């Protein structure tokens, strides 16, 4: 059997395709299943891409990324994330998903174990499995605000454990791991000589006083750590496919360069020139405006869930997802399908994990346009108040 036969295509992809077909057939659709920012990229990025095209910067580029972008990101990582690195430690990838693929392929041997939160974004787990690892899920519970706890991680460590994976701010819950807990996870990894893979794709999407800390900043001399970042969320560049990872581990970086060469041989050249200006020239006010709009959308969703007892939401301080517990006794898969039949996009908890916390939950994304949230939240409220299974 090929190892890909054990990897799912992803329920969210299946749901998305059904909704898009229904939309094509003329049905009104509310795209709450997908985490794709509705905002346009900043004009500085568009201008940089156009200038790169006009300057004919369309040929092969260095394997790990153009030097100017790696330098810009090293500066960003040192100043914003407080991770002391050089440009040579940064590699550009075809989105953060590709970064995770490369990372796991460079670290994992067949049979290794990777500790992951449950619920968790599907592809983060599947990429570990694709590399030959067994994933060990740590249940994130509503009564502890879905915090990924070091004490629970420690219980799961075995002789086969190779990696502790974390994602903060998190998809699908929108929870942020507190700094105190990050320190404990960092200490745990160092004590047991484990790799840390830290997915920080939602680092800039924060509200209600939520803050982000890169775990690598807490253990600056520890080399067995890979931090993964994305342009898709922070800069609304999801279709332009730019991600990057950073590590000071020399053997890891040597392996990664080989895999980058064999998988992509350099990310889209003009996109990289745009990415430089995204990280160097995007005004903080632009990102603040995006976050303010996300907050508005989140609150519209929360208001739509008043006066019903089907869904109990966790109020996120980051990302753009509303993670809701489904009333005990209800079939979540059927609820998800019934919502989709009404044109209300969603992702059932089974997309994200195998524990009760996942399976008895559902995710709604508020990354789509605000007007769609206004209309769709109204429809959701009506649906839930009248729902009988």
Polypeptide structure, described:
There is one protein chain. The protein is of the alpha/beta class and 389 residues long. The protein folds into 2 domains: 3-41 and 285-385, Aspartate Aminotransferase, domain 1 (Alpha-Beta Complex), CATH 3.90.1150; 59-281, Type I PLP-dependent aspartate aminotransferase-like (Major domain) (Aspartate Aminotransferase, domain 2, 3-Layer(aba) Sandwich), CATH 3.40.640. It has 14 helices and 11 strands. The strands form 2 sheets. It has a 7-stranded mixed sheet, with helices on both faces. Strand 4, helix 7 and strand 5 form a beta-alpha-beta unit. Helix 4 (96-107) packs across helix 9 (250-263) and helix 11 runs parallel beside helix 14 (370-385). The longest helix is centred in the C-terminal third of the chain and has 21 residues, at 284-304. The relative contact order is 0.17. The model has no long low-confidence stretch (mean pLDDT 94).
Care to give the gist of this entry?
This protein has 14 helices and eleven strands. α4 crosses α9 and α11 packs parallel to α14.
User: How many individual domains?
Assistant: 2
Report strand order across the widest sheet.
Answer: 1-7-6-5-4-2-3
**Unreliable stretches covering 5 or more consecutive residues:** none
| CATH architecture label of the largest domain | 3-Layer(aba) Sandwich
Radius of gyration, in Å, reads 21 Å
What's the number of helices? 14
Mean pLDDT: 94
Helix-strand pattern, N to C? HHHEHEHEHEHEEHEHHHEEHEHEH
Extended strand count: 11
Distance between the termini: 39 Å
- In helices, the fraction of residues equals 40-55%
CATH H-level homologous superfamily name of the largest domain: Type I PLP-dependent aspartate aminotransferase-like (Major domain)
- Most strands sheet: 7 strands, mixed
- Estimate the global geometry from the Cα principal axes: globular
What is the CATH domain class of the largest domain?
Alpha Beta
Could you name the CATH topology of the largest domain? Aspartate Aminotransferase, domain 2
SS-based class: alpha/beta
Proportion of strand residues: 5-15%
């Amino acid at each position: 059997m090929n190892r890909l036969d054990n990897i799912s295509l992803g329920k969210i992809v299946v749901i998305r395709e059904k909704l898009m077909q229904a939309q094509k057939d003329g049905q009104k659709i509310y795209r709450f299943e997908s985490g794709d920012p509705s905002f346009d990229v900043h004009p500085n990025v568009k201008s940089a891409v156009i200038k790169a095209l006009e300057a004919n910067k369309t040929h092969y580029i260095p394997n790990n990324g153009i030097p100017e972008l790696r330098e810009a990101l090293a500066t960003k990582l040192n100043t914003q994330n407080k991770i002391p690195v050089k440009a040579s430690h940064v590699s550009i990838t075809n989105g953060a998903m590709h970064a995770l693929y490369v990372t796991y392929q460079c670290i994992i041997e067949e049979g290794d174990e990777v500790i992951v939160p449950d619920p968790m974004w599907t592809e983060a787990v599947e990429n570990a499995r694709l590399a030959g690892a067994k994933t060990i899920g740590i249940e994130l519970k509503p009564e502890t605000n879905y915090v990924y706890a070091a004490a629970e991680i420690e219980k799961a460590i075995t002789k086969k454990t190779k990696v502790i994976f974390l994602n903060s701010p998190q998809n699908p819950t929108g929870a942020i791991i507190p700094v105190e807990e990050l320190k404990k996870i960092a200490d745990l990894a160092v004590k047991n000589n484990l790799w840390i893979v830290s997915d920080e794709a939602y680092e800039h999407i924060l509200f209600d006083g939520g803050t982000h800390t890169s775990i690598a900043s807490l253990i600056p001399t520890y080399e067995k750590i890979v931090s993964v970042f994305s342009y898709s969320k922070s800069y609304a560049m999801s279709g332009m496919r730019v991600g990057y990872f950073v590590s000071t581990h020399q053997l890891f970086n040597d392996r990664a360069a080989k895999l980058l060469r064999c998988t992509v041989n350099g990310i889209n050249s003009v996109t990289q020139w745009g990415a430089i200006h995204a990280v160097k020239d995007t005004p903080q006010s632009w990102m603040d405006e995006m976050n303010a709009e996300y907050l508005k959308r989140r609150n519209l969703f929360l208001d739509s869930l008043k006066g019903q007892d089907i869904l109990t939401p966790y109020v996120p301080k980051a990302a753009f997802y509303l993670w809701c517990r489904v009333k005990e006794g209800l079939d979540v898969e059927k609820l998800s399908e019934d919502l989709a039949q009404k044109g209300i996009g969603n992702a059932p908890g089974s997309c994200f994990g195998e524990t009760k916390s996942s399976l008895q939950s559902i995710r709604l994304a508020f990354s789509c346009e605000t007007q769609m949230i206004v209309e769709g939240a109204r429809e959701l409220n009506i649906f839930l108040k009248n729902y009988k299974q």
